[in-house]
Amino acid sequence: MTDATFTPRRILVATDFSDGAAQAMERAATLSRALDAALLLLHVVPQNALVDLARMLHEVIDEAKSHAEKAALHDLRTLATGLAHRLSVTAGTRVTCGPVVASIIDAANRFDADLLVLGARGANPVRDFLLGSNAERTLRKAERSLLIVRQATRGGYRQVLVPVDFSAHARHALQLACAMAPDAVITALHVFDAPLEARLEYAGVPEADITAYRERGRREAEARLHEFLVETPGLPAGRVVPQVEIGYPAGVILDTARRLGADLVALGKHGRSPVEEWVLGSVTIHTINNAPCDVLAADRRGATE
């Protein structure tokens, strides 16, 4: 059973007609059907593509824009028809021209989307490598939850990992993940560090005392995680598994995702303070770029609570 408060109701998926975008569209359509959410397929004709097309066709920009929009709209409607036949999902279509990320955000605002879905990589991997993918750049600028799709869709999510730093953003990520993956096992992972451990080792403190220090930190983290889960509304009983690990968050998150065979990692998009927000941002980007599965960056600024 999903919590309507955190269930996406309007999903926008952007496609550049690449294989990665096709995976994103399939996942968005599957979520749309499962959650009874409205779905909009968006294609942005980049400005540089218009210039190239105008030169090729010996046309002015306005004529090239019209040509590109008509061709893209035809392809987009073909995709929508395919979704209707295969998944019984009705999708709206929209084509726009301009800077890709700004156009995606503008379309999301107009559609009032509460979830954006993009492929991890687009049609130009070299450009993605040099400038960052559209997904990564959208993540930094959009004040909406963003699902980055890295894998082919094989039904609903079954194994979800949610890193928890006890912030309101992490709580929203956990609630949103539970709503989006109603049949999944949800692992709530808190990664803690023992800041004095290295100093204790350097000072020659006995290993037994260092171990006791580490275990005391683990017990405190486990108690805090239990309290956090109890105080989080909307969590399905018996489906959220708490887990505490020690280490560097980005590495532990990826190792745990691989060990669990996770098909989704859901993170809060921002941290608890400006410094922690920057750190979590780096963890989020590292996870998006290296996770073996889809990644949800949950943004509570556009959420109804």
How would you portray this structure in words?
The chain has 305 residues and is an alpha/beta fold. It has 2 domains: 10-149, Rossmann fold (3-Layer(aba) Sandwich), CATH 3.40.50; 159-302, Rossmann fold, CATH 3.40.50. Helices cover 50% and strands 20% of the residues. The chain has 11 helices and 10 strands. It has helices spanning 19-35, 47-57, 61-87, 100-111, 125-131, 134-141, 168-180, 197-202, 207-230, 249-260, 274-290; strands at 10-14, 38-45, 91-97, 115-119, 145-149, 159-163, 185-192, 240-246, 264-268, 294-298. It has a 10-stranded mixed beta sheet, with helices on both faces. α11 (274-290) links the parallel β9 (264-268) and β10 (294-298). The protein starts with 9 loop residues before the first strand and ends in a 7-residue tail after the last strand. Residues 126-131 and 271-280 have low confidence and may be disordered.
What is this entry, summarized?
This protein has 305 residues and is α/β, with parallel strands linked by helices. It has helices at 19-35, 47-57, 61-87, 100-111, 125-131, 134-141, 168-180, 197-202, 207-230, 249-260, 274-290, and strands at 10-14, 38-45, 91-97, 115-119, 145-149, 159-163, 185-192, 240-246, 264-268, 294-298. It has two domains: 10-149, Rossmann fold; 159-302, 3-Layer(aba) Sandwich (Rossmann fold).
